[in-house]
Structure formats: structure tokens, C-alpha cells
Amino acid sequence: MTSIIDPNTIGKPVRPRRHVRTLTGYLPEVDASGKEKWPKGEEKVWKSGMRSLDNNVNSITKSFVNHVQTSLARQPYNLDDLGAYQAAALSVRDNLLVNWNETQLQYTRKAPKRAYYLSLEFLMGRTLDNALLNLGLKDEYKTSVKSLGFSIEDILDKERDAALGNGGLGRLAACYLDSSASQELPVWGYGLRYKYGIFQQLISPEGNQLEAPDPWLEHQNPWELPRLDVTYGVRFYGHADRLDDGSGRAIWAGGQEVLAVAYDVMIPGYGTKTTNNLRLWESKSKRGFDLNSFNAGNYEKAVESSNSASAITSVLYPNDHTLVTLNMFGKELRLKQQYFWTAASLADILRRFKNMGKPLTELPDFVAIQLNDTHPTLAIPELMRILIDEEDLTWNAAWKIVTNTFFYTNHTVLPEALEKWAVPLVEHVLPRHMQIIYDIVILIYLFLAVEKKFPGDRDRLARMSLIEEGQPKQVRMAHLACIGSRKVNGVAELHSDLVRTTILKDFVEFEGFSKFGNVTNGITPRRWLDQCNPELSALISKTLKLQKGIWLKDLYKLEGLLKFTENKTFRREWAAIKQRNKERLAHHVLTTLGLTVNTNAMFDVQIKRLHEYKRQTLNILGVIHRYLTLKKMTPAERKKVNSRVVFFAGKAAPAYYIAKLTIRLIVNVARIINDDPETKDYLTLYFLPDYSVSLAEILIPASDISQHISTAGTEASGTSNMKFCLNGGLLLGTVDGANIEIAEEVGESNVFFFGHLTPAVEDLRYQHLYHPIPIEENCPALAHVLNQVSAGLFGDGGVYEPLLNTIRQGDYYLLSDDFDSYIEALAMVDDAYRDRDEWIKKSIRTTAKACMGKFSSDRAINEYAESYWNIEATPINGNK
Ligand code: 26W
């Protein structure tokens, strides 16, 4: 085939492959029949996994000191905790690298079908502790650094979170990577190496959220391997000219070319040798700087192209659930991010596949690509482009490959979160992809399938089209992801039902029910129990008489705890651990905010991104209601009340005005009530700034009750609810997302439910809009609270009017409809907490019966592997 494409275009490695040799005397020679001939003694060494490093305390100490002196170039005489963290990390990394190399080598040799998880977000948190746990070297490192005069806790605390994500979707991707490696599945992640992760949240004296950059790469990042030789060119703009030879091919040329450079992050499995890869792309200018401008003395212009190229991966977009607040430039850059990442990832995947020497028609037999929400949907037209324009396949052959390779997970049904891109913007940035999208519309919808199945149904065609009419026209990414994928799934039973009956209903009727499934989300018990709550983990091992290596990989074993609920000593130990976790949190609040927390109270926690649908506002209005009730009581009456400490944490998107007002209200309510001598023994409130994975690891084990109170039908799954349960925290929630399935497992008597159900929501909204009842009538208790805020009980009431008006007018998230039952549910929580012994039993049952097996990401990832990707575990020889 003659190439009609600029030789520098996408998909071609920029540097030619190098000539490589095998280290003589260490590895087998492979003869023509594929038989291996090993150098003497080496086969045993490699295959038993003994090539990994010596890991006794002495050799660890040696490796630590060695890294201090060589890699860090520092004196062992004046090392601080940060230096000690870096040395420990580098030494642990050596272990990961040996396993990583072995894993990749064996994947290449065994050539199993692989899955690739494309996610714009990976919210990894810290790595050192997790790597130590997964390698089984925690005790050795603890002893080693202690012998050198350091404490492992202080060292671990020096690590900055890798916060390359907003919330649930990004953390889910991180849990899935942990589980893939732990289940020995050949899965790689692909994402972007943002220079700045999610912004740091500061709170001003007035209670306003301020945003500061998160320069997480400020210090050397020991967990990544720059692969400066793994690079691809990615094109933007230019022009696409269709060939008129009837082949359907086009030439895309001109425009801007940017270089994608790979950075690899090692993902170790728990108790296995499998160490998978997360490949993150960094953008940089292909040509360095513009020499002509430089020579003419115009230095700014000379570096302009380099700046515009590196801008693509410079920052994670802090908007979850909507991009509507972005201006034109912001939108264009986000679109460029998405294409840059999908193009580089696909080129890399195809290069690896082609090295196997198989025809492209076999791609779906060896490659499954998972689209984490619609963000990587451009991969669909991109693969079409490569197959048609570069590989000379026919449209039909290409479409068959594409629709058997991709899988799409939807993470939200909120209309504002469904991605749409303006057609003129796509045409400008990706002219060839816009042509392909139009071709899909014409070939699939209008003339072929849909028209045939539903002749003359114009409305249906318009509803299903990839293009939404309007000014401007928009591309509907969820439709493209759906039509281009082998299977589609939601993330909890209720949510998957909603996907099938609302946003993708027409597609279910068109393509059949079996394409649309459910995989309920899960969490990794390694991080969310063993690491964040080591004492509870130890108690569980002791009680079950099982090493944690067994139950951490089979959480159904936790059911064995049930019979101990009647054991008094066990209950006492269980309660004592919860108490110590509360003290750990209180210590954190004292050292970071200088505030003293009452650890004898019930700890009530709501931690998640700030959003109207998650209804932090309902929670804070409930707190005010409680405060007003306490104020009306006599001191004697108050004495009978349960003490409660309420914690909030979460970030608001920088342009999300209403969500920021909620933060402001929380902070100012805290200021008043924490200082009120009449009530402060019974009710206090804290907003902990800068929520992160690491902060969650402290908050979750300390919680007695946590709140998951979204308007029914809006929270796709929620995954922190699972984390709280695993740590013996009870749930107060609406009948929404994963709350429902958790209650099915733990029993409704262990979950506090309230509020309207999903089917009622639409009617209530309709009523609010067309037959509004004044809030004083609809919910007097809430009206009273709103009036107190307006009247200035917590400072200038006028400031909060826009927030309060969202409830008084329209009340889209139904606070006034759910407020009374919310207050009742809180009272039930109080009643239950009064019988402390029974509460502890509930807590134990929640951990045990949450049949937490179901909510382990191991279960979830195995479902994807079996029912979606069709990949198998590929054990690495020498696995522990
Ligand atoms: C700005 C565009 C945009 C739109 C949606 C960015 C990010 C999103 C995500 C889909 C938002 C998200 O994180 N969804 C969450 O996904 C979790 C994992 O499945 C669920 O547990 C949460 O319920 C869901 O809100």
C-alpha cells in the first residue's frame, strides 16, 4: 500500500525502533521452534522469582543508604524525613521494577488478550504504603528505617498525594488498577500526566473557597519512569480531504503537531508478582522552539508553540459533572486533551498489537479497550480513521473491528454531565474525525439500520442521532460511545436501569437488551481497610484466625465475624479501635487547624465533591435545625441529647457558585455554633479543607455514621459508602445508587433510609415548577431554618440568598420534600446510638455482612474481565 499520509502522522513512533540484544549468559536462547535453552543455573533463578532483590532488613538498610548517597546525592549525616521518604521510595521502587519487567516480558511472551482502561482521571493517593503492603515488606522497612533513627509513619506522611482526579470516577479507576494486578489480569491504564492535579482548597476567613495550584511534581516523583523514547506525534487542526476514488479514505494534513511522551507508573498486585503499568502521557512541542523567531530576537514568539503544546497536559480540569462554565478557550483545550490522550494511547496499543504479527481483523481477539465515561470516546472515530485512512480497510471491516474492541461505562445520568461538543469546534480541531462522525450518522442511522427497523420514525431518528440540532449543532458523545461499543454498562443496579430506561432507551430498543449490563462499583480492601485502619485489620485476622493475605483477597470471609457479635470482649476491642480512630482524627484536626474535637461524641461524616445533587445543603440545614432545637431546650433537656460532631470535607468546582456558597454557609455555621456555650457540648461542626484520598483514609475509620443523601436517582453509585461500611461505619442515606445494594447485603435494619424514591422525583419536580406550594406550607420546619439564615443568624444573611432561593424556587433537588423525613432519620440514628452495645453490634454486622465481598473491586474487575473484556488471569512465573 502506498502511504497517502504525512510520514510524521499519528500512530508512527517518532523514533525508529532500536537494535536490541539479550544480555549474554543470563537469558535463554530461543531456537527456531521456540524452544528455550537456558544458561546454566539461570532458569531456576528466574522462574522461581529469585531474581527479585534480597529483602532482609540488612539489605534493605543497605539499599536505603545507597540511594541516599547515590540517587539523592545527599549526606547520610543530615537527612530529613523528606529525604528518608525519597530513599525508601527509591529502594521500594527497585523491587517494583524487577516485578514490572518480569510481568511485561511474560505478557509479551504469552501474548494473552489484554484490556486497556482509558481514564482521564486516576486518583491514586499515596503509593509508598500501598507498595510496601502489596510487596509484603512493611515490617522489614519499618525495622530498617527505625534502625536508622527514623519512624516509618513520619516517612509515609511526607508523600504527596497523586491527585490526578476529581472524585469517584478517578478513585474508581485507581481501585480497579489495584484489583487488576491483584487478580493477575493483564490490564494497563492509560491517562494523562497532568503537571497540576486537582487544585488545593483553601478557606478564606469569610468562609470562601480559594483555589491554589497543586504542584505535586515539585519534588522528584519516584513512582514514575520517564520513557523519553516512547513518543508519538499527534495532529490537530489542518484540513481533511476525502479521496474521490470511492474508498472512503481521506488525507488529513497541516495544522499543529504535538509530541506525546510516555511516563510509566508501576501498579503492584497484592501478594502477586504481577506488576501492571499505568501509562501517562505528557505533551510537548514537536519542534522545540521556532528558530526563525528566535534568531529575529522575538523570544516570546519563539517559545509560543512550545508553550501551547505543553499546555495540553498542564492541568486537570476541576469540573466534574459539567463543563458548561468553561469559556471557548477552555473548551478547546479540554477537547485537545481528550484527543491527544486517546490518539497517543491508541497508537501505542496498535504498535504493541502489530508487534504480534497478527492481522488487524484479529484486534478484538487480543485487545479490549474500556472507555471510562465518555471522555475517551474520540478513540472510536480515531480507530476508524487509522483503519480506513492508514490501513486501507473498508468502512464495514473497520466498523466491525471498532465495535468489537470498545466497551463503555456510563457514570452519571445527570443531563448536564452528558458530554457534548460543538460541531464547529470539532470540525476546526479534528476535521477528519468530524467527517467520520457524519459518516456514522449517515451509514448507520439514516440509511441503514434505524430507518430499516423503525421506518419513517423521524422523531426517533432525531433523538438517536449523534448530532443534536441547535445553534450550534453538537456531537452527543454518549451516543457515539454507545453505538461504537461492544457493551455498555452502568455502575449500580438502579443506575444501570436508569441508563437503559432513560438516556439510552432508544438504543436498547434498537440494539437489544443484552448489550446493556451492570457492573456494580467496588473498592480495594487493601487501601480502604488494611492501610487506613491497621488495628481493625489486625483484630479481624486475630478473630478469624486467618492471615490477612487470605481474607483481604476474599472479603466474603468477613462473614465469619458475625458469630462474634455476641462476644463481649470482641465488641469491647471493636469499640476501642473506633475510639482510637476518632482520637487519630481529632489529633489531625488539632495539628492542622488548631481546633479541639470532642471525641466522646458521635462522629457524623459527609465527604465528597460539593454538588447540589449530593445535597450537602440538606445536611447543613439539618445541623441548623438541630442547633435551633437545642437552643429551645432547658439545660436538663439538653443533657439527654446525644453529642454529635459533624464533619464535612469536599471541593467545589471553582466556577460553581452555589456549591461554594454551601461551603461558606457550613464554615460560618461552624463559627457560631462551635462557640455557643449552651450547645457546644452537644453539637459541633467542622469543615476540613482540601479533601483528598489521604484525608479520607483518616476520616473514614473514625466515622460512626456517614451521609449519602443525594436526591433519589442522581448518584450513579457512590463508593465512599462502601468504604465506611467496611470500616464499621453505619449509613444514613437515600434510596439511591449503591446504598440500595449495600442495604440488601447488610439488612435494612442496619441502614438508615429516608426520602422519596426515584419514581416520585419527576412528578415532584413537575409540581414545583407548575403548581408550586410556598415552602412555609410544604415544609414549615425547613422554612423556619431558611428564615433564620436569611435573618443573619450566621452573618450577613443576604450573602446566602442565591443558595436559599434554589430551594424556595423550583427546588430541583427536592430538599423541601425530603427535609422532614431526613430529620426523622437523624432522630432514629440518635435513638439507635443511645444503646451503645447494640450500635457496636450493628457496626460489626455492617463490616461482616456488607458481605463486603460484593463491594470489593476484585469482584467488580473480575466481572469486567469475564463478562465484558473476555480476558484471563495470566500468572507471572515465580508468583508468591
Ligand atoms: C466535566 C465533564 C465530566 C462529566 C462527568 C467530568 C466527570 C464526570 C464524571 C462522570 C463524574 C463522576 O465522577 N461520576 C461518579 O462516578 C463514580 C464512579 O462510578 C460514581 O460512584 C459516582 O456516583 C459518580 O458521580
What distance separates the N and C termini?
A: 48 Å
Look at the helices and sheets and give the structural class: alpha/beta
What topology, given as strand order, has the largest sheet? 9-12-13-6-3-14-15-19-20
CATH fold-level label of the domain at 525-852: Rossmann fold
Beta-strand percent range: 5-15%
C-alpha Rg (nearest Å): 28 Å
Overall shape:
globular
**Small-molecule binders:** ligand 26W
Helicity range? 40-55%
The CATH class of the domain at 525-852: Alpha Beta
Question: What's the CATH architecture name of the domain at 525-852?
Answer: 3-Layer(aba) Sandwich
Family: Belongs to the glycogen phosphorylase family.
Keywords: Allosteric enzyme, Carbohydrate metabolism, Cytoplasm, Glycosyltransferase, Pyridoxal phosphate, Transferase
GO cellular component, one term: cytoplasm
Pfam families: Phosphorylase
Structure commentary:
This protein is an alpha/beta fold and 880 residues long. Among the domains are: 1-39, no CATH class; 525-852, 3-Layer(aba) Sandwich (Rossmann fold). It has 37 helices and 26 strands. The strands form seven sheets. It has a nine-stranded mixed beta sheet with strand order 9-12-13-6-3-14-15-19-20. Helix 7 packs across helix 37. The chain is globular. Mean pLDDT is 94; it is low at 1-9. It binds ligand 26W. The site of ligand 26W has 22 residues, from helix 7.
